[in-house]
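Researcher: Final request for today, and then I'll write up notes for the group meeting. The sequence and the SMILES for pyridoxal-5'-phosphate follow.
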Amino acid sequence: MTLGYLSSLDLNNFIQAAREVPYQRIESDLFPGVEVWIRRDDLLDPVISGNKAYKLLFNLLEAREQGADTLITCGGAWSNHIHATAAAGARFGFHTVGIIRGERPPQLSATLQDAERFGMQLLFVSRQVYRKRSYPGFLLELKIAANCSSFIPEGGANLAGARGAQLFGQIIDSSLPAGLNQVWLACGTGLTLAGIQAQLRGVSVIGLPVLKAENSIRGHVSQWQEAPAPDAGEIELCSGYHCEGYAKYPDYLRDFQQMFEQETRIPLDPVYTAKLLYGLHREIAIGRVPAGSKVLVLHSGGLQGRRGFLPN
Ligand SMILES: *Cc1c(COP(=O)(O)O)cnc(C)c1O
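Model: Predicted protein-pyridoxal-5'-phosphate complex:
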């Protein structure tokens, strides 16, 4: 499958690429009695992947409008957001600086090697310093604030990121195959869930937390949904599938992922989408998804992160 990818930094170009993202029916015994579809935002662009592309879009447009030539952001060693930001900077002509949590290791993760190859300058800071990343003055303290730079918080979690998540919701709303009644997605901060849930009409949206932080996800969702659509429903979280925490990859999850990938030929990432599909599989098995439901699963990308877990 080849798609138009994000060839220029332009809202209409982005919308067009996002509208071309395919929906695919999954035929698999892993989901008995339920019709399952997947939206392949991993295919939106080969390197500016999945939901991170949506969260970056308005951040990039604003940076360009403000005449910024540098994007500064932060994340961990396997961060999809760091990877996408470095790639977007290279593609659209921004310098990029990545503030990375922890000491510089002798051998960089594959993610950070890519980021450097894309031209990102990596700045390693202690966990203690990293904790202050959302305080005003953080960049000054690191002596990297400059007039022509634009700061994007970790994961793209700011107002511009929330607007991007809303756009994601609008695009799904206008392109959803007919008859689907549930949309499932993996949540880290919950910002993507907030945007999508505010925009989708007449379907329930179910977020599956991939880390043990449901309350903070609920908090984030309401924080970013200042004005949800009047007919947007309740926030539904499907708990119990964080598999002991962020980036934890127990054998049963690995086995499930292998089975899913062999049957469908759709690659997943261990941190987000493998847990999402596993959670859906289990919820169907224990009868929590009514037979005959038509479920859309969002493939939110992040496949670059597989390299931290799986032999390539
Ligand atoms: C970051 C990420 C998410 C979570 O997005 P939030 O908006 O933080 O909830 C889901 N899937 C993938 C692949 C991601 O990289």
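Model: Residues 50-52, 80, 155, 186-193, 269, 272-273, 300-302 surround pyridoxal-5'-phosphate (CB under 6 Å). The radius of gyration is 19 Å.
Researcher: Thanks, that's everything.
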